[in-house]
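Final report, closing paragraph on structural work. Over the funding period we assembled a curated collection of sequence-structure pairs, and we close with a single example.
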Amino acid sequence: MSRAFTNILKKLDNELEVLESETEDVIQKAEKGIKITRHSLEVLREQVNGKQFKDKATEIHFFKNI
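Its predicted structure, as stored:
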């Protein structure tokens, strides 16, 4: 997996951890977590759309492991 994808996922994980520790209200935590996750997925989608895989096996491996 490329460094850009790894960084996006690490940032998502860090933001969710901060949210978990800072927010007590479960509903508020869920709403903010969904917003954070959607944003990360949009960024990831943009990165994937611009990526060319060298073959089908590499593409399948990427999507199975991300």
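Residues 3-65 form one domain. The CA atoms of residues 57 and 63 lie 10 Å apart. We thank the funder for supporting this effort.
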